[in-house]
Write a structure and sequence with these properties.
The chain is α+β, with helices and mostly antiparallel strands and 220 residues long. It is built from four helices and ten strands. Strands 1, 2, 3, 4, 7, 9 and 10 form a seven-stranded antiparallel β-sheet that branches. The longest helix has 13 residues. The radius of gyration is 16 Å and the shape is globular.
Length: 220
């Protein structure tokens, strides 16, 4: 695959029950109004809290109790793998994001290689609700250009993009909508060097096959 900086695609919602499974985790079909249902007064998220609120903990505790991960693996096999011409390492558990009004979802503008990730990784942004303007990711178009723009998407769309090298982050959500999404990283197997993999900054998980990554083979 030739890496394009940011490319948006769509998929068939009937084939994947992402939203339904997350609704089961959170006990509501009004995800966009989660801030009206749950106490979301956890302050502006920072490096210590952007993966540790009780809403994040609920996702990571319940994700294996639902069919979400089965749909996730099917999505990678049927939708993501065909973008590449080889076996692919993929993030075992996708990263959960929530951006409630008057808040962000990631602590700071950054590129992932600054957080110990390989510059050869490719990012996938998968919204579970509408993600637009101040309640989505803002990313530059070329490395170090600083021309940030929103990665607008509907549920049923996804981005393949170069988050390893492009700086990205959030603005304060000025809407009255909460955004749910997951994002994950893949790495072409030809770029994988087990002896040169570091640990994630936050979870201290080794960025290697069997720990952070699983293998998806072309002919499986």
């Amino acid at each position: 695959m030739v890496m394009h900086r940011k490319e948006k695609y769509s998929y068939n919602l009937d084939d994947y029950n992402f939203r339904h499974e997350i609704e089961k985790m959170f006990g509501t079909d009004q995800l966009e109004r989660i801030h009206e249902i749950e106490d979301c007064d956890f302050g502006i998220l920072d490096m210590e809290t952007d993966q540790t609120t009780y809403l994040h903990k609920k996702f990571y505790e319940k994700v294996e109790e639902t069919n979400f991960l089965n749909d996730y693996k099917k999505f990678i096999k049927d939708v993501i793998l065909p973008h590449f011409n080889e076996d692919l390492l993929y993030q075992k558990i996708p990263t959960f994001r929530i951006q409630v009004p008057n808040n962000i979802s990631v602590a700071e503008f950054h590129n992932d290689k600054s957080y110990s990730h390989s510059p050869d990784e490719v990012n996938i942004f998968l919204p579970i609700t509408e993600a637009k303007e101040t309640y989505t990711i803002w990313s530059e178009s070329q490395e170090n250009l600083g021309d940030y723009s929103p990665m607008n998407a509907e549920y049923g769309e996804y981005y393949i993009w170069d988050g390893a090298n492009l700086k990205h982050g959030n603005k304060i959500n000025e809407s009255n909508i909460s955004r749910f999404s997951v994002d994950f990283r893949v790495l072409p197997f030809s770029k994988y060097d087990e002896n040169n993999m570091q640990e994630t900054i936050t979870t201290k998980i080794k960025l290697k096959l069997g720990s952070y990554f699983e293998l998806m083979e072309v002919n499986t």
